[in-house]
Every structure is written in C-alpha cells, then in structure tokens.
Amino acid sequence: MSDKILTAVIASLVLVLLLLIYGIATLGSSERSNDRVLPERHHASIGQVVFRSEGGMTRINPAVACATRDACELVDRIAAQIKQDIQALGGAHPVSALETTEGKQRLQTALTTHVQQLVQRNTGDPSKIVTVFFDEIVSTTID
Question: Membrane-spanning residues where (predicted)?
Fold first, then answer.
C-alpha cells in the first residue's frame, strides 16, 4: 500500500515541477513580448450621427483611429464635414445589412476610405488614418 502512495506522491511532484517549468517559460516569453514598442494610436471622436436608410434609421458614434496626433487634429477640424458625409453615405447601407457583421464591416470600410479621401483633400496624409470604428451602432427598423 505504501508503494502506491509513494508513487502517487512522486507523480504529483513531477506534475507540479513540470507546471512550474512551463509557467516560468511562459512568463519569460511574455516579458520579451512586452519589450516590443507598439505604435502609438490617437483617436478623434466625430460625435453621434443618425442616418436614414432602407428599412429604418441607424445611430452610430463613430471615432477615427489615427497613427499621428496631427492626423487626428485634422480630423477634428473637418469633423462637421465628416459627420455630414457619414449621414449621406449611411443611407446606402440598409438597416437589415447593418444587423450582420459583414454589413457593419462594409460600412466601416466605406467610412474609413471616405475619411482617408477627405484627409487627403485637406492636405493630410491619408495613410495616417488607421480606421473608423463605432463606439455604438443602433439600428431601428420601421415597418
């Protein structure tokens, strides 16, 4: 009986030792990944936008992720124009499409491309616009 207990204790100790070794190895690799410098991101909020489209209305709170502070400052200066354009562009995205992930991604892609074009027209670098994202997106269907 004592041989079985001794074997179980040894097996348990080996398992604990292996887990400790794995934990130390994982800790070391995560410390190395924390040494990487991630690019700094800046954000510019556009404010709430409501637009009508086929099937109802949609309310979003878009924000723009920029690679530089200067790009976000330009977005802040032209935010009113961006907001008006989002209202116009949003109408091309039916409420039913915005209920799907693919539909939301299409809207996001269209808005990102448009903001990049607006930034370029206002003598900014469009490559500094990373993406347009939504803090909130709420669609209401109208029967």
Answer: none
Distances (CA, A) of 126 to 1, 38, 39, 92: 75, 20, 17, 23
Same domain, 27 and 65: no
Question: In terms of domains, do 74 and 128 share one?
Answer: yes
Please write the tens of the pLDDT for every residue from 89-108.
888 989 999 889 999 999 99
**Rounded distance, CA 80 to CA 140, Å?**
24
Contacts of 66 by beta carbon, 8 Å cutoff, 6+ apart: 41, 42, 43, 44, 72, 75, 128, 129, 130
**What range defines the domain where residue 15 resides?**
1-36
Q: Examine the domain organization and report whether 107 and 72 are in the same domain.
A: yes
Q: Are 71 and 127 in contact (CB under 8 A)?
A: no
pLDDT, residue 116, reads 95
As a whole number of angstroms, the distance between CA 34 and CA 26 comes to 12
